[in-house]
Design a protein that fits this description.
The protein is mainly alpha-helical. The protein is built from 28 helices and 2 strands.
């Protein structure tokens, strides 16, 4: 048998053996050593141990273990497990459910939003699916929701955490492809939220077309719990809570006469409620200001500093180079779009505060206490990476420390749960590291046997266009997602396609982001649809696996639609990394 044929045999065997249930990492190492021993075998050597495959194993192991990109994995995984063990999601689900109580399929919408948000914070698919299965699945079924709708939204929403940064899958791909983690994080940001938006449109649209699949909730489940003193306060001042709070802060005598149970209302209580009422305005205004500061002020200061530095060098002609203020200024059309968005936000804020009553104020307070701490931590972790303030590893350390602080503040993390989080982190990290060792050895032997070259020759002989290659590669990965998990696809099959990207002039950042979205289907496609098995483990006995599979199928089609839009509109993927780090 020729060497390239041995390489292809390796490729076939790895799929067969993994499907038989053998551990992926040790299967990769075992096949790598076995076929590598054959490739390096020299009859002139007397000792059987005198074979260069063992040197290759040591070199590949050392190379994988000294990969700086992998250092951030245990910290991000620890961040996720601490949040999961800290049980911080129950109050979040309740508050979001109340906020969207008037939207069709409100429970499903709240479930998707929590899955998206919690997935970003934890990055653990299994943990999110199981947690939301426990918290949201039974309430949806009791409310009369269709089993397919309820199971589909949990299984599909739970996988978003592996796509939206900070994601372990992106780190693994960056290590395999030799790409920048921060660029991949920036590239995956918009597609991840866009896919979540497509899921949301599908759920609401289906519920509007067929209201029977998501009946309206009973009154007791959508009624906002408002303290009695707030009703008295509203009657004493104004139906509009913001106006009433302004009046009470200026003239607090009537407010002080109101009692909250046995306690009188204090001036500090009025101040806290006024601050809570201003939270939506502060979030919108703060976001717009940060965008204006980074795009206009920060870029202008950087441009002026760069131009001044060039001028100090005294080199003629350099002042018109890439450091010029014109080239580092805001993108074309920024002021127009910023003005339109700011005007729309202002109109929405005016409409919101015009209708602000005590129920809306209580929803704001619930959202602020349940979402804002976790949201601030997530935004900080992502912002310090994307803006180049820290490395991915340092940001992961900040996230892990913040997760501990949040869990301690919520008084939900004890010594037992901390030990469980650390143990699971060590277990997951060991799995990823052994997987990298096995993958490095397997791919090295595969290349030595000529398997990589044979695949490249076959693909190039087809005389495909870049579009055809893109479709072929993504279709193969989509099909591989049915029997295999994302880890096996990333470390075994993605390296086969990477050398061909340069020939077809395809950006590895764009192609990799398409792979990330594509691999969402790997969690939703039987027979190894792990999301379905996670949910089945916590679902009632009458819910069958076939019903869960049927609920996941539409979301696989949505994934394909998202990939098509990403390909025809590459700016959604590449604009942010190009703007932040240059094209």
């Amino acid at each position: 048998m020729s060497d390239p044929a041995l390489g292809l045999t390796m490729l076939v065997l790895i799929v067969v053996v993994i499907m038989m249930g053998f551990p992926t990492a040790f299967t990769l190492m075992g096949l790598g050593i076995f076929f590598g021993y054959i490739a390096f075998y020299d009859p002139s050597h007397v000792s059987l141990a005198d074979n260069r495959v063992f040197d290759l194993m040591v070199q590949r192991t050392y190379g994988a273990m000294t990969n700086d990109v992998l250092i951030s994995i245990p910290l991000f995984v620890l961040m996720g497990y601490v949040m999961e063990r800290g049980a911080l999601v129950d109050k979040m689900f309740y508050s979001i459910q109340l906020a969207f109580r008037k939207v069709p399929a409100s429970l499903a919408v709240a479930t998707l939003i929590v899955c998206t948000f919690w997935g970003i914070a934890s990055g653990l698919v299994g943990a999110v699916v199981v947690l939301m299965g426990v918290i949201a699945f039974n309430p949806m079924l009791k409310a009369g929701y269709d089993v397919k709708l309820a199971s589909g939204v949990i299984t599909a929403g739970g996988t978003l955490g592996i796509l939206i940064p900070p994601s372990v899958m992106i780190i693994v791909y960056a290590a395999v492809a030799g790409q920048s983690v921060v660029k991949l994080y920036a590239a995956a940001m918009f597609p991840g939220f866009f896919l979540s938006l497509l899921y949301l449109i599908y759920i609401v649209g289906w519920a509007m077309i067929n209201p029977k699949i998501a009946p309206p909730l009973p009154e007791d489940q959508v009624k906002v719990p408002v303290p009695d003193w707030l009703h008295k306060f509203q009657a004493a001042y104004s139906k509009n809570v913001l106006v009433g709070l302004l009046q009470a802060l200026a003239s607090p005598s009537r407010a002080m006469a109101i009692r909250d149970g046995d306690r009188p209302i204090t001036y500090w209580t009025l101040v806290k409620n006024f601050i809570a009422a201003l939270v939506p305005f502060m979030l919108v205004a703060g976001t717009l200001w940060l965008v204006w500061w980074y795009v206009v002020i920060h870029q202008q200061v950087a441009a002026e500093a760069a131009v001044e530095g060039v001028q100090q060098l005294g080199t003629p002609g350099l002042t018109a180079g890439p450091a010029s203020a014109a080239e580092l200024g805001p993108p074309e059309g920024f002021y127009l779009w910023f003005g339109i968005i700011a005007a729309v936000c202002a109109l929405l804020q005016v409409r919101y505060y015009f209708r602000l009553d005590v129920s809306r104020l209580e929803v704001i307070k619930l959202l602020s206490t349940s979402i804002m701490p976790l949201g601030i931590l997530t935004v900080v972790v992502l912002a310090v990476i994307l803006f180049g303030i820290t490395t991915a590893t340092e940001s992961a350390g900040v996230g892990a420390a913040g997760a501990f602080l949040l869990a301690i503040q919520a008084k939900t993390l004890d010594w037992k749960r901390t030990k469980e989080a650390v143990f699971l982190t060590a277990k997951t990290t060991a799995m990823v590291c052994w997987l990298f060792v096995g993958s490095a050895l397997f791919s090295g032997v595969f290349a030595i046997l000529g398997g990589q070259g044979l695949v490249e020759q076959w693909v190039l002989s087809l005389n495909m266009t870049p579009v055809q290659f893109m479709i072929l590669s993504q279709a193969i990965i989509f099909v591989l997602g049915w029997p295999l998990e994302w880890t096996e696809i990333i470390v075994i099959f993605v390296p086969i396609f990477l050398p061909l990207l340069r020939h077809f002039n395809i950006d590895p950042i764009l192609w990799g982001t398409l792979v990330f979205v594509n691999l969402q289907a790997a969690f939703l496609s039987p027979p190894v649809a792990m999301s379905a098995f996670y949910l089945k483990g916590v679902s009632p006995k009458h819910v069958t696996l076939n019903q869960i599979f049927a609920g996941m199928m539409p979301y696989m089609l949505i994934v394909i639609v998202c990939m098509i839009i990403m390909y025809f509109w590459p700016g959604m993927t590449l604009w942010l990394p190009n703007y932040l780090y240059g094209g």
